[in-house]
Write a structure and sequence with these properties.
Structural class: alpha+beta
Number of domains: 2
CATH superfamily of the largest domain: paralog of FGE (formylglycine-generating enzyme)
Order of helices and strands: EEEEEEHHEHHEEEEEEEEEEHEEHEHHE
Number of strands: 21
CATH topology of the largest domain: paralog of FGE (formylglycine-generating enzyme)
Distance between the termini: 13 Å
CATH architecture of the largest domain: Alpha-Beta Complex
Strand order of the largest sheet: 2-3-6-13-7
Strand content: 15-25%
Length: 418
């Protein structure tokens, strides 16, 4: 079985205090994890579509600044490049900086500190704004009331304010809602449903991503999933940035080798759903079949069909919605199991862990017989076609249950990634 390496990070490395020519810069460590990025249920009470569809993302650990880059930090790194400052306040976030200006800033910051600074990716920005692994599924960065956590149109007086003067989010980051919007590293591209490890945006394009509402934004445009994009030459009073940092594992970290448990249980509104571990190139857990009681609890309606207590006949959209409801209730990134994931678990006899007393002898014999016929058809078809005979090739027995495009004919299972 695959081993999972879990670093134990000492408290001294959770936050890095970095001196930049006499100005302090605080970097917060964000542990790697998975989350649903984009228009999740807590983010969708507005008429915007650029953050759809919601999709699963995996991120490695990284550091991100607890505040936006201030005027005084900018001056410490870029002394010859003066910026506009309201009333001379040095602790407000810098603005009127283009994406190219940000690249020059991090290049010089690297030279001063000897550390590989950069702009955060869009996924890193959103994961941090949502509170990382401590997320409470707030609509804004740190709460559901925007004026308590950020400077937006309703409370800012139409100007930016000193960083860190509102409440922090779950992991101690400030102003990820309001004050100024923030440049990200990525080129803009539309979202897809595919699961993505450490995404870095589109491969090509002309626009760079900007995230986080600014002081002149209404509440609807300050949600954490809202996306904007501008040409990299753009420099306005509404856009600033914060920096990120990725460090290799420190040799002082104690690394613990940990076997993942074979069975995990996830509680969803008082009901327990069991998952079993599936070793693969990207290991995951797959659940037992979803029962009618859990479906009814989450969806407030009965499933269209049932086989004993198992829910059947649900549409693809209802299955996706069910998985998202469960994710919110369990605070876990749960997805509908794909045909390939179920087949892999079937082929390794892993799903049988939920039904240890079932006799699979007859099923296995039937499977072997069909596989022999498939092999024979592959071998003799070229010769048979020479004389005008087409040998039928039987369907793979495991894949037969996935013939319907909407998947309504098979029981519903969920997956949970490590």
């Amino acid at each position: 079985m695959a081993r999972k390496h879990k670093p134990v990070v000492p408290d001294s490395l959770q936050r890095l205090e970095i001196d930049v020519n006499g100005i302090g810069l605080t970097m917060q460590r964000i542990e790697g994890g998975s989350f649903m990025m984009g228009a999740t249920l807590d983010q969708t009470d507005r008429d915007l579509y650029s953050d759809k569809p919601a999709h699963l993302v995996f991120l490695s650990p990284y550091y991100i600044a607890t505040t936006e880059v201030t005027v005084q930090l900018w001056r410490a790194v870029m002394p010859e490049r003066e910026v506009i400052v309201p009333n001379g306040y040095p602790t407000v976030p810098v603005s009127y900086v283009s994406w190219y200006d940000c690249q020059e800033f991090v290049r010089r910051l690297d030279s001063i500190t000897g550390l590989p600074f950069r702009l955060p990716t869009e996924a890193q920005w959103e994961y941090a704004a949502r509170g990382g692994e401590k997320s409470k599924a707030y609509r804004f960065a740190g709460g559901n009331e925007p004026d308590s956590v950020g400077w937006t149109y309703s409370c800012s007086g139409n100007w930016k304010h000193a960083v860190g003067s509102k409440h922090a989010n779950e992991i101690g980051l400030y102003d990820m809602t309001g004050n100024v919007s923030e440049w990200c590293q990525d080129l803009y591209g539309p979202y897809t449903l595919s699961t993505q490890p450490n995404p870095c945006g589109a491969d090509t394009g002309s626009y760079r991503i900007v995230r986080g509402g600014s002081y002149d934004e209404c509440v609807a445009n300050s949600h954490l999933s809202v996306r904007r994009w501008y040409t990299p030459e753009t420099a306005t009073e509404y856009i600033g940035f914060r920096v990120a940092l990725t460090l290799p594992d420190d040799p002082m970290l104690q690394v613990v080798q940990e076997e993942p448990p074979l069975i995990r249980s996830v509680r969803i509104h008082g009901k327990k759903l069991r998952f079993v571990y599936v070793p693969a190139e990207q290991p995951y857990y797959i659940s037992e079949e979803v029962e009618c009681a859990l479906w009814r609890k989450m969806m407030q309606k009965d499933p269209p069909e049932r086989s004993k207590s198992v829910a059947l006949g649900m549409s693809k959209s209802d299955r996706t919605r069910f998985a998202e409801y469960c994710s919110r209730a369990a605070n876990e990134a749960l997805l509908v199991a794909s045909a390939e994931q179920i087949v892999l678990a079937e082929q390794q006899h892993i799903i049988e862990a939920f039904q240890p007393n079932v006799n699979h002898k007859r099923k296995n014999e039937t499977t072997r017989a069909i596989q022999r016929k498939r092999k024979a058809a592959d071998t003799f078809s070229p010769w048979a076609e020479l004389v005008g005979v087409r040998l039928p090739k039987p369907d793979d027995p495991i894949l037969l249950q996935f013939k319907k495009a909407d998947d309504e004919s098979r029981p519903l299972r969920l997956v949970l990634f490590l």
